[in-house]
Segregation and condensation protein A (Acidithrix ferrooxidans), 245 residues
Amino acid sequence: MSFEVKMDIYEGPIGLLLSLIQGQDLDVYQLSISKLVSDYLVEIERRKAIDLEVATEFLLVAATLLEIKCRRLFPNLTALDDEEEIAFFEERDLLLARLLECKTYRDVSLVIASLLEVGGRRRSRDAGFGIELSHLVADPLGKVSPDKLALVYREVVSRQPKESLGPIHVTPLPKVSVAQARDKILARLTLKKEVPFDELIEFSSHRIEIVVMFLGLLELFKLGKIEISQEGSSSPILLSARLLV
């Protein structure tokens, strides 16, 4: 449903402006944009909902009218009469082009909606061809027997180059224990009052060493031998020896 304009010089759907301007039956410069916007806001409040197509059409017309009027407020004083007349027609053509574009998209959307509605009522044929038409359906395999298919398959497979796997080198995992990790942490804390966890794993060459070091950290904390602190989620984890009272 199109937005209805009610003014002294025009009353009707906003989409009808296109035909009126084309027929030069309406002077677009006499339209009050402020009243147009006010009436539209009142209509939205009354409907309690915004129709996307109506809003798009309204904004397109209002924005184009506003642009044309702004140009008229700052005319080129040095322009000749012919140039002013050309500018007038350019502005009118701009509005016509935008209105035609809006109308085109709206008409296309109606066509697509109609096609979707018609297509939704159609159903594909689930059953196959009837027996009386079976002789018309081409057999993709023809007279190829299963034995012949197996023979062709073996020939194709035999032509494929055989990949030879070279010796697989497996890197041995480092031998590190949780007890060793605990001792390393305590030894470091005897030298420094506070140690970042990143410093403990700085020279770890394997992920398993980092995991074991973290387990040693948790075990020392559980035993009450160290304190763990962190100011923020992205801040470093700091370890310090717990003072025995």
In short: The two ends are 82 Å apart (CA to CA).
